Amino acid sequence: MERVGIIGVGQTKYEREKRETFGEMVYEVVKKALDDAGITIEDIDNVVTVSNDFWDGRTISCMAVADASGAYGKDTSTVEGDGAFGALYGLMRVLSGAYNNTLVVAHCKGSESYSSAITNAAFDPIYERILGIDAITSSALQAKRYMTKYLLNEEQFAKVSVKNHKNAKNNPFAQLPLDITVDDVLNSRMLSDPIKLLDASPISDGAAAIILSAERQAKEVSQNPVWIKGVGYCSDAYRIGDRDLAEPNSLRRAAKDAYKMASIENPLKEIDVAEVYDAFSYQELLWMEGLNFCRSGEGGKLIDEGVTEMGGELPVNPSGGVISAHPVLVAGLTRIIEAVLQIRGDAEKRQVPNAEIALAHGINGMCGQSHCVWLLGK
Amino acid sequence: MTIYIKNEIDLKRGYKTMDWKEDVKEMVYQGRIKVPYTWSVGEVGSRFFIELRDKKKIWGDKCPRCGTVFVPPRKVCSKCYSNIGEWVEVGTKGTLLTFTVVRYKNNLQSRDAPFAYGIIKLDGADTGLLHLLGEVDLEQINIGMRVEAVFGEDRKGEILDIKYFRPLKEA
Amino acid sequence: MGNRVGIVGVGQTHHRSKRSDVNGQEIINEAVSRALAGAELTIEEIDAVVIGNMDHFEGINYVDMWSVDGSGGYMKPIMKVTTGGTTGSTVAAAGYYQAASGLFDTVLAIGWEKNSESDTSAAIATCANPILERETFAGAIGPLAAEYSMYMKKYGATEDDAHLAAVRDHNNGANNPYAHLRKRVTLDDVRNSPMLAYPIRLLDMCPRSDGACAVIYASENKARKITDTPAWVVTTTTRHDYTHFGDADWTIMQTLEEASKAAYKKAGIKDPLHEFDVMELYLPASSCAVKWMESLGVCERGEAPELIREGVTDMDGELPVNPSGGVICTNPIGATALIRVAEAALQIMGKADKRQVPDVEKALATGFGGCSWSDVMVLSSSKPR
């Protein structure tokens, strides 16, 4: 595989009820990514936008950002799903040999939509939707299954929330930097057992963009591209009743493929920093099992032992994670951007020293049906 | 109606606010998309609902290749992609795989919070069925408990023909 | 550089106005099963899946996730791409790039739609800017009608020129067992069909259909093992236009012109009329069958009416267009442009049965959609350089 680098990144500050329109947010991050790469829009030969008609309240939602993304007159396409999948498609377009500098941009304004109705529409219209199930209640079913099968407790979930909100204090783009305790989490309002308000990610608005470039081009335009070492993605069964929700099998497969490509044998040891999609606190623990940072059921041990704290063996979510800012569709791309900043040494107050291999993770669908794993390095 | 652009990007000085914007209060446009939908249930699903409606029976189907018994039934095996032809009646009793007690309200939910969702593995099935739990002390639900389907009186051929699952009172 | 890629199998449903016997996942399965059978492959041999449709036509969010029960995507890499009317060709391009990337040997591309399940016009109207244009814009016919009116005035084309193209496509569709509308029509039938929006009549316009299409792409080494006659992908290109309707120039089909020019350049095509043996074009109305031939460089500006009148694009003409009956016979929107690619591939593979054009070596397929987006894909019987 030809080497592909990420040569520029840009993100907005994530906030609830941002005043900017979709187009304005997209323009802001595209401009930032171009400036970061030191190139202009003329140097971009194709654009992948990421949007979703439900979240945007608009059919053919990609139309609304065609001009703001700088795609006019260029080849373009649109991925509907998490931004990490949009980035994957961008990567494949570069690898196909058809394109050089590829821009990937995602946007979402959760505050302008009705999350329960939109995530309810992801469930089967014939057998499930009428029950009123949504992202929070289905995730609660998963959390309950997970903690019962492997004997985890709510304190362990709460510790993830405490750690990540604390990390967010070092990230100027995060929405919820918080000084909270385990008791604060445990005493916050119960949404759906065992998920409490502080176990859940917020409603967020924002946008993010990256620029990918094949080695042949990347070295010309960028001083220090961050190289893509491995990728993998995979989907589990659709219905949550068809899956054992305590077993992230599709993540295991995606991670295996990515590790193989990057020649990683011991992820806990070889990876220096990870940004994972913790839409709810329990997910960070469950996804770490899927990522093979530990064995099944041992996710709680990693948080108990401080392995994933900033000074630990494998810091997870130095940015504060998705629990500190959750622009749907954007969040996976944000994880990639944070991983890029870590490898470049540009992560400022949230920098993990000497990060050489970083992992970024995106999810799609309900209860982590589909996962996408990226490994980045120098 | 105009939406004003808040930031102008100045390459040298970064992002700055322009003076005239201080007088502008942005407007937000309210909209609602209402499009009528129908969803074909298909032959397999229709039989499932007819049996539920007319006979209060729950049917699954069994993949000839991997042997998985699916509830609700499906035409093609979700796992090994074989065509499924064999119908299997499963029990109206089953085991609770997981549950949650919902404490917040919204207009999509089919009953008022607090109430409980569960995923139930019916006897004879290999997959779980997402449904509601009822006639139960919300603080006494536990994974692994035995439950049974309670059918509605006025059944229409939909998943809520099963009103909910309740704890099984063993005879 | 990337792998060369060939299309090694295609499958589609028998398209109908309403398929109430199957749900969405099942209609997808029909197309996929036929594609696999045609290529003599099993689902285990598919490395990745890409799927597309339009969200608001069925009201199902995260369709790629939902589709897994029908697409065979269980424990496989799957993603969704979507761009409105061009969704089918967007899926086609994604299948190609994914297989060319070297990450996968075989990629299954799926387009589908069950238009009968919603109010399509209501759903389409929400593509307009909600603040500025949604209240005033309605459906797809108006702009196409206005466009042809301008064209008739400028070049002396007639309503009959468009009707002739409608007769061509409808009669071709009668040879296609998968087509939704398969009734032979005469020029008088078209002339006498109800007026929808001057100058477009009912038989000039595409229907809305329930259907699905699947296309299997394979990298060079794998393609050779699967079939002796892959349809090689030479190149594919996308161009698109404005965000607001008022920004567009409606007198020309600029994006199709730009996309085809760019594709011809990459494919080394200088004389499309003589170098292509067949075209499967996304023509939403018969008026486009006239005017857009000029945008495709098949003839000079203003010459298209004569091209149609002389039968150049008929089945026995120099450059047959839409042997399948095209979009005015079949239109499951998310699948429509992928069907163009599938039909073009069948022509190259020599598997188009009663609609086969003899000895096809080069074929063009196009997609059109959500606000002047144009996609083109060039296929060839010989391996690209």
From TrEMBL, chain A:
Query: In the record, what terms sit under GO molecular function?
Result: acyltransferase activity, transferring groups other than amino-acyl groups
Q: Does the keyword Nucleus apply?
A: no
UniProt-listed GO biological process terms: isoprenoid biosynthetic process
- Keyword DNA-binding annotated: no
Ranges for domain Thiolase N-terminal: 6-215
User: Pfam families recorded for this chain?
Assistant: Thiolase_C_1, Thiolase_N
Question: Record's InterPro entries?
Answer: Thiolase, Thiolase-like, Thiolase_C_2, Thiolase_N
Q: What is this protein called?
A: Thiolase family protein
Organism of derivation = Candidatus Methanolliviera hydrocarbonicum
Record lineage: Archaea, Methanobacteriati, Methanobacteriota, Candidatus Methanoliparia, Candidatus Methanoliparales
From TrEMBL, chain C:
Listed InterPro entries: Thiolase (IPR002155), Thiolase-like (IPR016039), Thiolase_C_2 (IPR055140), Thiolase_N (IPR020616)
Question: Residues in domain Thiolase N-terminal?
Answer: 6-219
MF terms in GO: acyltransferase activity, transferring groups other than amino-acyl groups
| Domain Thiolase C-terminal per the UniProt entry, residue ranges | 245-378
Q: Name one GO biological process term.
A: isoprenoid biosynthetic process
Q: Which residues form a coiled coil?
A: none
Short name of one Pfam family: Thiolase_N
Q: Does the keyword Transmembrane helix apply?
A: no
Asked if the record carries the keyword Transcription, the reply is no
Question: Keywords of this protein's UniProt record, alphabetized?
Answer: Isoprene biosynthesis
Name under which the protein is recorded: Thiolase family protein
